[in-house]
């Protein structure tokens, strides 16, 4: 997978707190990969499918800005960060790092499956 370098990222600055623009959503074996941009940096957020969704949770859609509370799941920074194609196994499926653009995997307490709850921190 390669990340489109032409995607506009300058709309969201570092001073925008936790605002990220989702530009792509992918899945593998019940694990969702939500690709988001902030200040020209790409973020890959991992989320498991969930059956416990209520009316407080809203669908995550591409080209929409969300306030995600990101937690680093695993970081490739400083460890073979120049290499692409490195992988990590997350509860079954293998998740790829894009060494040229994505060097960290994240989770978020306010994401369940492909749903977002802004009231959870």
From TrEMBL:
Superkingdom assignment: Bacteria
Official protein name in the record: Uncharacterized protein
Organism: Formosa algae
Taxonomic placement: Bacteria, Pseudomonadati, Bacteroidota, Flavobacteriia, Flavobacteriales
